[in-house]
Amino acid sequence: MGEHEISRAAAARRGHEGEPGRRGEPDAVIRVRDLKVAFGDKVIMDGLNLDVMRGEILGFVGGSGQGKSVLTRTILGLVRKQRGTIEVFGENVDKLNASQRRVLERRFGVMFQQGALFSALTVKQNIQVPMREYLKLSPDLLDELAMVKLDLVGLPADAADKVPSELSGGMIKRAALARALALDPEIVFLDEPTSGLDPIGAAEFDDLIMTLKQTLGLTVFMVTHDLDSLYDACDRIAALADKKVIAVGTLETMLESDHPWLKAYFGGERATARQQSGKRERNG
Ligand SMILES: Nc1ncnc2c1ncn2[C@@H]1O[C@H](COP(=O)(O)OP(=O)(O)OP(=O)(O)O)[C@@H](O)[C@H]1O
What we know:
By secondary structure, the chain is of the alpha/beta class. It has two domains: 25-107 and 188-278, Rossmann fold (3-Layer(aba) Sandwich), CATH 3.40.50; 115-185, no CATH class. The chain contains eleven helices and ten strands. The protein has helices spanning 3-14, 68-75, 98-105, 123-134, 139-152, 169-180, 199-216, 227-232, 251-256, 260-267, 269-277; strands at residues 28-39, 42-53, 57-62, 83-88, 91-92, 108-111, 187-191, 219-223, 236-241, 244-249. A six-stranded mixed beta sheet has the order 6-7-8-3-9-10. The protein has a four-stranded antiparallel beta sheet with strand order 2-1-4-5, with helices on one face. The protein is globular. The N and C termini lie far apart (47 Å). 34% of the residues are buried. The site of adenosine-5'-triphosphate has 10 residues, from helix 2.
């Protein structure tokens, strides 16, 4: 498949050619119902429901250790569930055979916490890892595509041949995002993408995510503790507590909730200051 065909296929998948995504697919691109996940006796989620809508940036919040990463990994098929259904693009993932599963995986991009790049590989080689796994392309085309991805995330061309230890924290995040975008995914999972970045770097990363959502029509599932990201970048927020999604909606929905964790989280000093300022303080 040539580059042009790949881009066309990706555009068609995202509905850039006049349709709202694949025909017949629901607007909820991820639908989780009555999910139970446990490790031995330790129940992490029980009766959890969640919809992620096409084209939105959904911010997923919750206290430390509540199960945000476990939910992400369960949706990705990396953690076994005890009960419940997970539908992605309208397909029940339990009903997919191995090859259908592989097709589905190509429609996901994942950026794990801390970037998780291969330290011995250059940025370009890191970006090419999923391409080599899923696409049969010539070395020249692989190089060309990797440079397109670098440009997409705002990295200079000379970052291509550097290894992760030669990059700043912000550049590592961008390189990891470029790798997550390697296969032109429709949904991107980001696990605390702004953690470890300084306020300006974090604001720039949020801007990049919003731009990619607009230009590529991406759906973004973003686990985050970053109040600024929740205020500035997310279309909706889902909050995890008591083994369930206890609230989902806009920021106003979160602020109106009586749940003690949400009251503490969004009513705390930092959140209150953020609300009152009405803008991102980190921009100085
Ligand atoms: N493979 C595993 N085996 C056993 N327990 C696990 C496993 N993976 C996660 N857990 C447990 O599941 C719980 C939820 O973990 P998870 O990493 O999803 O939390 P989190 O909400 O993402 O936390 P944080 O915000 O601190 O990253 C934790 O108690 C964790 O110890």
